[in-house]
Please model this.
Amino acid sequence: MGAGAVGGFVGAKIFRNESAETVLVARGNHLKQLQINGLHFMAPDYDEYLHIKAVEDPSDAEMKPDLIIVTVKSKDTDGALKQIKPVIGEQTQVLTIQNGLGNYETLRDVLGTDRVIRGFCKLGCEVTAPGEITYRSLGDVTIGEDDGSNSPRCSAVKQLLDHSGINCTITDDIVKQSWQKMIWNTVFNCLTGLTATTTDAIYIENEAHQLARDIAVELRKIALAEGVTFTDDEITAVVEKSKALGAFKTSTYQDRLKNKPLEFDAFCGYASRKAAEAGVSTPKLDTINALFRLSEHSRVRAVMGKNEPETPR
Model:
């Protein structure tokens, strides 16, 4: 559900390894190209066209799927939920591996805890043209139950993904690990998306490196208010381990290059709101959030040709 970079990669791997019948849900020119030519799937060791069924609406697949993998942007979660509800059967499970926090809760509150699996992914992949994705690095999925159990449904998902060549880990602390991914996303997606640069630049500039550390510490305070504890070493590791990625293009930076709407609200926006609710001071995060909102106003005006002031939010 949402066959962009992440959804396209996961769908391609499942289809390519004949792990299960696969349907991609996409839209726009990307969908048209998928339907005409198939998915052009490029990776360091192969370049091929995969003729996977692609539809605009899940109902068009004419099936009750065993598993729906939700990979849409956070702002599209409500719309995706409305689309998938009609095709959910008695055995259907819904796995979210979306960026940001809150998507699992949105799906769970409507579909039920026994229907939705919490997860996230680490993936270097990009939609390089309509109907085309380019895989560069990583490709790991982490899933788990909030109570830490190794459930049969998580085991079934792991078996499917492992068979497809996607490394899947079942964690006994999915809530904390989801927060850890949230911290990474907020630091790296926001800084690179706002400044239009790759992750390596953050380590080259001392001031940017320190800003990344400061944002991670602010996020640690929000997580603690939510009942999730991180040690000093764990916070340091989130920031420092990504040096090994080199010139990594985050999804928000990719979207900026394509002049697409940016997913900042799922990161610094969400964090700023949670901080305000908890009474936690996060000046660096709040500043980044404000700059993103100004930047997005500028992008929208440029796209729509508007010069008049917009109504404050």
Summary: Strands lie at 23-25, 39-43, 46-50, 53-55, 67-70, 93-96, 116-129, 132-144, 167-170. The domain at 176-304 is CATH 1.10.1040.10 (N-(1-d-carboxylethyl)-l-norvaline Dehydrogenase; domain 2). DSSP finds twelve helices and nine strands in the chain.
